Amino acid sequence: xxxxxxxxxxxxxxxxxxxxxxxxxxxxxxxxxxxxxxxxxxxxxxxxxxxxxxxxxxxxxxxxxxxxxxxxxxxxxxxxxxxxxxxxxxxxxxxxxxxxxxxxxxxxxxxxxxxxxxxxxxxxxxxxxxxxxxxxxxxxxxxxxxxxxxxxxxxxxxxxxxxxxxxxxxxx
Length: 172
Known about the structure:
Blueprint: H1 32-36, H2 42-50, E1 71-73, E2 98-104, E3 114-120, H3 121-129, H4 142-159, H5 164-167
Parallel strand pairs: 1-3
Antiparallel strand pairs: 2-3
C-alpha cells in the first residue's frame, strides 16, 4: 500500500484507480493548464498549443499517470469510504465532518501529481492508523452519524419560525 512521506498508509495501492478526469481537462478535451499557465512549463505548453491545446489523454496517447501536470481533487462532498455526506456548520467554527485525503504525494514519482478524495474524520483516522483501505465497502461510524445528525438538528432549529412577539417580551 502507498505511504505518506511520514510513513503512514494512504489506503490505496494505486492512487490512479481512485482518480478521475484531470482538473485541467475541459469538457471538449483540451488542456486548460497549458492555456492558463504557459510559463510554468513552456515546453509542455508549446506542444499543447501546436495541437490546439488537445489533451494527450483525451486523444488516447497517454494515461493520466503520464501527464506531468495531472491533478485530480474530488469535488463530491462525500466520504469516499463510507459515503457520509458533509453537513457544514457555518456559524459554529467546528471541525468539518469531511477532510481532504491525499492519495499521491510529490515523492511518489518524479512528477508531483495531486490526487485527493474526501474522507470523513473517522475513516481518515482508520486509513492512516491501520489497515483500512479507501475502497472498503463500509458504513459510517456511529459517532460520525451522531455528529452529522447533531448538525442537522441545529440547522433545523435555526430554520424554525418564531415570531418577534414570542422572542421578545414587549409588555412593558
